[in-house]
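MODEL INPUT / OUTPUT PAIR
PAIR INDEX: 1
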Amino acid sequence: MTDKKKVLYADDDLDDKTWIIEACHAAGHPLEISFVDNGKQALDYLEATTDGALPSLVVLDLNMPGLDGRQTLQKLKADPRFAHIPVAIVTTSTSRMDMEVCKRLGADLFVTKPDTITEWQVVVNQLMHLVQPQTSLNS
């Protein structure tokens, strides 16, 4: 029996999506990652969840077209159906203000995107600490 945890990852950068997949494999973590390109798509994905299983973690980039990471985080935490899902911000930003705003909005983790596969594995390990057992919409 596999124990894959569902993760929703919102990022418009194809390279970063590739890095996270490679890092998960290299680190040996069984994550089932669904990718979307922006915050609106992330919210649409959650709204359209028909099988009752919400992701165990939402990962957001801050700088996405349309609905950015901050706006998406705020909407997630304001919605009682999704507020309990841990949210990690993985971004190119190194701004202390961005970090403080995201923490205030309810982010569980704020990490600057790394440059190497080894550093991405460290990020994956941090994300694994946030992954909760899958939850049902009916819970």
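PAIR INDEX: 2
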Amino acid sequence: MKAIFLDFYGTVVHEDDDILPVIYKQVQATAQVECTTDEIGAYWWKAFSTLFYASHGSQFTTQRMLNV
């Protein structure tokens, strides 16, 4: 065997489904504009997915670093 591939997030470590709503509420409480937690989640996902779709080849960045 030469390699083992793992779907790390959600398989090896817990997903962030439980903590994200807490973070969204904290962001909402300090936001300078009125927004819902759903809007905050959608904004975060769009920004994050843009980063990981561009993360390949010489521009590769780990998911952990993209989250930061």
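PAIR 2 NOTE: The CA atoms of residues 6 and 12 lie 8 Å apart.
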